[in-house]
Amino acid sequence: MEFLGGSALEVAPKLLNALLVSDIDGTIVTLRITEVEAYLGVAEDPGSHAFRGKTERNSSMFLRGGHVYVYRSYGMHWCANVVAGPEGEAGAVLVRAGEVTEGRETALARRLATGTVRRPADLASGPGRICAALGITGDIDGQEFGRDRALSLWLPREPLGSARAAVGTSTRTGVGGPGGFLPYRSFLLGEETVSRHRPSPHEKTTK
DNA sequence: CCAGAGATTTTCT
DNA sequence: GAAAATCTCTGGA
Known about the structure:
This protein is of the alpha+beta class. About 15% of the residues lie in helices and about 25% in strands. Helix 2 (about 105-115) packs across helix 3 (about 125-135).
């Protein structure tokens, strides 16, 4: 996982089409990633948890690339990130959406335990939904990706290559203020699992 | 289909 | 005490 030592901005698009595999509670669930967002380090990115420095919550963002950063969002959802960059420097890529390719039944059961699934594409379309579907909780925070671990990451056999044109970019969802301008969201075009982009609050006001 | 608001709790100012 | 990298349901067009 050499490339995870790069900045979150470099790493984010490379994670598109990668497989995120969870082996939790004795079941394998595999997710093909279709949408991600990059978050940078201290004083670099007003939208990042690390903007004001290291705290207890965001300390995993300062680990070496290849670790997991899980945080609680709005008091009720878990969100999972792939940590990027060298040790001591904050950076992470939020996994926003994907398609469950293995373990659909388990994923569906986990999702139905807390919410509803209107259409198949909604199984893991959203950071909170992904964690519910894969069984990811705060217990995983700070762990390392790897074979025989709770979470592992597998790059696509074929690099995106010609599919490079199929990658879209936009501002991040739900990030307001100065950070709302930054085009740090990457997604695969034409994917059913990618949510319609909701403009950041500032974009809304400037139309 | 879309906009609006509630749920719920941790974190930081 | 306010805000938060969200999700779901409700009500109106």
